[in-house]
Amino acid sequence: MNQPKTLAWHETLELHELVALQSTFLYKLKKNVKMIQEEELRALYIISIQALERNIKELIMFYPAAPGMKDLRISEEEVFLASDLLGTAKVAVRNYAIAITETATPILREVLTRHLVAAIKWHEQVFLYTYKKGIYPSYDLQQLLMNDLKLANAALAEDY
Prior knowledge:
It contains five helices and no strands. By secondary structure, the protein is mostly helical. InterPro entries: Spore_coat_CotF-like.
C-alpha cells in the first residue's frame, strides 16, 4: 500500500493536541528550570525538557503533510499565554469529570459537580477569547496548525 501524501483529518487533530500541549509544557519547564537550585530536581527538569524537545521536533515534521497549510501571524507570547490558560482549563474539566466517577460520598460529589460546571464555564470563556483573537481558530485547521508551529518553535528556541 502506498503512503498517503496528506494526513487524515482525525490524526491531524491528535497531532495538534500533542504538539500544542507539549510545547506549552516545554516553554514552562524551560522558564522554571532557571530557578531550581536542587541538583536532582534540576536534572529531572533537564531530562524532561530534552524528551519534550525530541517529541516536538519529531511531531512537527508531519505538519507539512497536514491538510492544506497556510501562514498566520500572531505574537508568540500571546499564543503561549492563551494556550497555557486554555490547556489548564481543559485539564481542570477532565480532572473534575474523572474525580466525580471515583467519588462515593454524596456531599463531595455535589461539590465536585459544582466545580465541574464552573470549570466548564471557565473553559468556555477562555476558548471564546482564544477563538476571537485567532489563537485557537477551531474551525480553520490550517490556522490552528500554524499556531502550533509558532508555539512549538518558540518553545524549542527558548534557552534554559
